[in-house]
Hints:
Order of helices and strands of chain B: EEEEEEEEEEE
Shape of chain B: globular
Helix content of chain A: under 10%
Order of helices and strands of chain A: EEEEEEEEEEE
Structural class of chain A: mainly beta
Number of strands of chain B: 11
Number of strands of chain A: 11
Number of helices of chain A: 0
Distance between the termini of chain B: 36 Å
Radius of gyration of chain B: 13 Å
Structural class of chain B: mainly beta
Largest sheet of chain A: 7 strands, mixed
Strand content of chain A: over 45%
Helix content of chain B: under 10%
Largest sheet of chain B: 7 strands, mixed
Oligomer: heterodimer
Amino acid sequence: QLQLQQSGPRLVKPSETLSLTCTISGGSFSTRDNHWGWIRQPPAQGVEWIGSIHYTGNTYYSPSLKSRVTISVDTSKNQFSLKLNSVTATDTAVYYCARRGAPGYSYDVWGQGTLVTVSS
Amino acid sequence: DIQMTQSPSSVSASVGDRVTITCRASQGIRSWLAWYQQKPGKAPKLLIYAASNLQTGVPSRFSGSGSGTEFTLTISSLQPEDFATYYCQQVNSFPITFGQGTRLEIK
């Protein structure tokens, strides 16, 4: 059974880089047609798609975050990662990793979520 | 970007009621729409994919319909565990976008 386990700092200082990693177990990053994504949810607000990485390595980003976001993969560790630079308090949110795959290409498996607070 | 608009933003209902939530896309997305349920402190849970397909393990009282720009999620007979926030999401094209959410509350 596919599971996603998130790790990374929960407190980041303003102007620094937020870094999170999602470790895949019970499956492989390289499984055909899978997209691996990051989604966030500010406190008491709706959900926002940040971006995703295809099993081919192609990346796709939200236009509003594109200048600050990098999603990458380490296939040797079966992990994919999020980096968001130059963070401000508005980046405080619960961050989730998730998998999109067939059928339907919706996010059917999610990580546990990580509340990242941007504060000095 | 494709904008997703849900209505209503919140709804109050009682156990046993039938509830319908609507989601409209700013442009056609064929059937590339999903519905999620989220409870406090939890990740969203996939209920419906490709507009009308029930995700494995989801109770049959949930159903989805629609194509193009207008979609609905129906809960045929509300159960206590259904009180939550519901989101629609389009996966037709990048960037992927979500609706703003519909909060389903107990009357």
